[in-house]
Structure prediction request, 204 residues.
Amino acid sequence: MQMEGTVFTPSLEGMKHVKSESGVILTKPFLQVCKQILPVLEKFGSAMSIVKTDIGGNITRLETKYASDPTKYEHLHSLVKVEVSAKTAKSSSSCTNGLLWLTRAMDFLVALFHNLVQHPDWQMSQACSDAYSKKLKKWHGWLASSSFSVAIKLAPDRKKFMEIISGSGDINADIDKFCATFSPLLAENHKFLASVGMDDLKAS
Prediction:
């Protein structure tokens, strides 16, 4: 059975609710959109399993904190502000760290999908490598970089992948819309993280 719309349809719908009326990014809807990207990653098979596990872990960390006090943590950046005040933001298990790596992983995916639309002649592995070197590589240590290079070799055939994620919709239009709508939200996270000195933490 073919899905209604494309694999991006749920996240495009979800993005309409990410900001409050006053223009603040809300925790629950933002994490929901990130979750709605995970099925896209499943279609990559084992090539993206590291990324998928990483994203899933960071979403869970932020959701758990949000659930502990939904009113206090209604706004996404409040999860970070509390830790910055308590001087726990730099801890590897902090929500600040979780949001930073979640945002970076999403940057990578936006760049990857952008490549798939902009460079129809590229193989999937080239689209992945290019997005990785632009968005994640500089933050990763040698170990993470080398395991990523190995994983990319397992990337599925591009044509088959695009067919699987297209469903009954216009996949190129949806990817363009997804990248255009999601990128400014990710940029806002980076801007905020930079304002508290937390945007340039590296992986050990």
About this structure: DSSP finds nine helices and no strands in the chain. The CA atoms of residues 27 and 76 lie 4 Å apart. The radius of gyration is 17 Å.
